[in-house]
Structures are given as C-alpha cells and as structure tokens.
Amino acid sequence: MYHVVVNVLSIDQSLEEMTLGLKNDCLHGTTIFRWYRESQRSNFTLEDAERKGRPRTSVTEENHYCCEENA
Questions:
Q1: Which backbone phi and psi does 19 adopt, to 5 degrees?
Q2: Which of 4, 41, 51, 69 could form a disulfide with 14 if both were Cys (CB 3.0 to 4.6 A apart)?
Q3: Cα angle at 22 between 3 and 48, to 5 degrees?
Q4: Does any domain span residue 6?
Q5: Where are stretches of biased composition, namely Basic and acidic residues (predicted)?
Q6: Which residues fall within 8 angstroms of residue 60, CB to CB, at 6 or more apart?
Q7: 4 burial class (0-12, 13-18, 19+ CB within 10 angstroms)?
Q8: Which 3 state secondary structure label does DSSP give 39?
Q9: Quick one: average pLDDT of 5-14?
Q10: Residue at 17 is within a domain
Q11: Is 16 a member of any domain?
C-alpha cells in the first residue's frame, strides 16, 4: 500500500496493481479503498485505533493464574 500511496495512483490503478501483484493473497477491494481514502486524508496508519469496551483478548496474566489455581 505504501508503494501505491507514494506513487500517487488512482484508486482503480491501486486496486489493479495490488490485485496483479498479490493475486489470491490480495486484500478485499473494500479494504484497499478504505486504506486509499485514509491515505488521501493523511490519516493512514497500520496501528489499531483505541476502542472502548471489551478488550481484544481475554487472556491476561491475572486470569491465567486464577485458572491454573482452580485446575
């Protein structure tokens, strides 16, 4: 994706290049479009955004320790 953004290709050209280069391993067109749109806003990052609510994983040292004690 970085290559596509640096070369300032259109969204159609970006999708075509990624599809040709990655073939079956290519991301879905919707994902590529979203990344392209974010890059145009100078808001592109590969980091996860902070979210409220449930954590991404339920495995923590604390609950792992509790489970081992009860086993």
A1: -65, -45
A2: 4
A3: 65
A4: yes
A5: 59-71
A6: none
A7: buried
A8: helix
A9: 71
A10: yes
A11: yes
